[in-house]
Amino acid sequence: MPHLAVLALFSLSPGLAAANGNLPEPFYHRLSGALQWRVAAQGETLASLSSHFGVAATSIARLNGLKAGARLQGGEVIAIDNLHIVPAQPGFDLVLNLPQKMLFFFPPHGAVQGYPVALGKPDWPTFNGRFRVLYKESHPAWDVPQSIQEEMRREGKTVKTKVPPGPDNPLGEYWIQLSVPGYGIHGTIAPTSIYRFASHGCIRLHNDDIAALFPQVADGMPGISIYQPVLLAETDDGDIYLEVHPDIYHQGIDPARRARRLIEAAGLEDRVDWTAVRAQLRHPCGTAVLINREEPEENQEETS
Question: What are phi and psi of 296, to 5 degrees?
Fold first, then answer.
C-alpha cells in the first residue's frame, strides 16, 4: 500500500470546476492525505517520518510541540498532517509537481494516489514537461551515466560503470523508463532521501511505493512534470486551501504575487482570511492549509 494513500478526497461544485479552464493560473479541487496519528517505531525519527508521509520534519515537530532535532521514543504517538492539493492535469495519468515533491497517479478506477518522491538537486534538476512511459523493468541493472561517473571521479570515489541488480543497486527493484532520455521512476537504497531534492534528476520512490505503482503503470501512459510552488483549491463544502513551497529551482516565482493572482482569478478575495494567507507565505509548511475567512457570529447563528 502506498505511504500516502488517499485518506481524504473532495471535489468542486460543477460550476467552479468548469471555470477552471478559464483561469490564468491552475485552480484545483482535490486533496490527498489527512491529519493522522502514527505510533513511532523504535529508531524512527522525524526525518524518516518526513520521507515516509511526505511532510516536512519541521512541520511534524511544530504540530507535536517538539524541537526540530527531537529524538522519538518507541511507542510515542505522533500527529502527522500530510494534506496536499492534488494538481490534476486533464489527459495525464501521472502528474509530478516538482516544488511539491509529490507524484500523483490517476488510475482509471478508484481514488488518486499520491507518493512523496526524491527529485533532482537544484544544480541537477528534474525535467519539466510532458513524458510517456516507455517500458518497465524489474530487478534492473544500473548503467552509470557518464556524468555521474565524472562526479565519482571528482569526489575520489571508485568509478563504477555498471551496478548489477541486488541490495547495492541505487535503483532498487523497479525501474520505469520515461520518454525523456536518461530519466526514470525507481526505488532506492536511501529511503531518507525521499521528499528531498537529492537525486541526479530521476524520480525516487520508497520501495513499497514503487512496488505498488509499478503494476498499475502501462507502457505509453502519458504524464507531465509541472512546476507549481503555489496551489489553490476549494472543496464542495466551500473550504479554501492554500499550499506553498519554495521556488527550489529558482524560476523567479513570487509566492505572494502568485497566491494573490490565484485567489483573485477564482473570485475568492472576500472569502479568504488574508492574515492566514500572509502567515502561510511567511512560513510555508508545504501542506494544504485552510484559509477561509471566519463568518461573523450573527451569520453563523442565521445559518445554524
Answer: -60, 150
Number of domains in the chain: 1
From 3, 186, 206, 245, the catalytic residue: 186
Distance CA 237, CA 202 (A): 38
Q: What is the CATH number of the domain that holds 158?
A: 2.40.440.10
pLDDT of residue 298: 52
Active site residue 202: yes
Say whether 206 is catalytic. Answer: no
Amino acid occupying residue 24: P
Domain membership flag for residue 205: yes
- Does the residue 81 lie in any domain? no
* 106: in domain: yes
Please state which of the ranges 11-15, 62-66, 220-224, 281-285 shows the lowest mean pLDDT.
11-15
C-alpha cell at 285: 509548511
The cell for 223 is 504524464
Which alpha helices (DSSP H) does the chain contain, by range? 14-19, 46-53, 57-63, 146-154, 207-213, 255-265, 274-282, 297-303
